[in-house]
Amino acid sequence: MAKLKSYAAMTNQGPYLQINEDGIEVDLRSQLYLIFDGFGGSNIGDKTVAKVKETIKKFYTKIGGDPDSTLPFFYSPKYLLEGNALINSMHYAHSLIKKDNFDKNMSERGGSSAIGAALAENILTMAATGNCAGYLYRKGHLEIIARPDSLHDLSVDDYNRHFFTAPMSGFGLFDDLHLEIHELRITDGDMVLLMTDGAYARLDEDEIKYVIEKKNATESEKIGELFSQSNSRGNLDNQSAVILQF
To answer: Cβ contacts of residue 177 below 8 Å, gap of 6+?
Structure first.
């Protein structure tokens, strides 16, 4: 069984905005880890994130680990029970946000990007929608696992990619919820890093790797440095990150 040795989870409104539409959640009992990047504006995106987060937590904890559970939205024998439970909980949250948005004007509708990660024994199931990013650091190598589903591929080069992070999927955005699913076998020494675009968009992978490899820094200090570097390059967005050290 993979053992979580330490972790850090941080979110803030960033250097400019007055409200934080991001969100994070670390549920050690259920081994469920969530990160959100809401959209819709003040009093919309933040409320959407809060509702999605609570819905996923409640739905997942009801059926995760229970082999007799009913999976109403999705089932695939390809994934573990916990992975299927996570996917179902995200689809359920999406259905509620769609219902909330149905009678609203476009300017009043809320949505959110997200990554959910559920650990069972030594398998971490990662389900992503929208423009959040999920990385695995293992034995000196940093690899992006959950790629942002955004306008990034339309950018001309890496120097202006932070202008192309608008999500192309997410809760409440389209009729269907588009999820990218990955199962990772976690080994001792692995680090999993989840970030919103306010944290990663202005940094390349070598810069992220340089920060998380610092031996004398805590996980919280590493996140703080990633935030500071992004802000020094002009970030004005909300920022969130979760580091899981196994």
So the answer is: 90, 91, 94, 129, 169, 171
Instruction: Supply the Cα-derived Rg of the chain in whole angstroms.
Output: 17
Q: Which residues lie below 8 Å from residue 141, measured CB to CB, with a gap of 6+? A: none
Residue 155: CB atoms within 10 Å: 15
For residues 73 and 92, the answer to whether their CB atoms sit within 8 Å is: yes
Domain 6-245 classification at class level = alpha beta
Token pair of 27, please? 């549920």
pTM, whole model, 2 decimals? 0.94
- Report the distance separating Cα 150 and Cα 152, nearest Å: 5
The closest alpha carbon to 167, from 184, 159, 179, belongs to: 179
Per-residue pLDDT tens for 151-199? 987 776 766 777 889 999 999 999 999 999 999 999 999 999 999 999 9
Report d(CA 215, CA 244) in Å as an integer.
15
Q: HSE on the CB side for 143, CA within 13 Å? A: 9
CA distance linking residue 98 with residue 50, whole number of Å: 15
Helices marked H in the chain — which ranges? 45-63, 81-101, 197-200, 205-212, 219-232
The pLDDT > 70 percentage for the chain reads 96
What tokens does 147 get?
């790629």
What is the DSSP track for 177-195?
Answer: PP-EEEEEE--TT-EEEEE
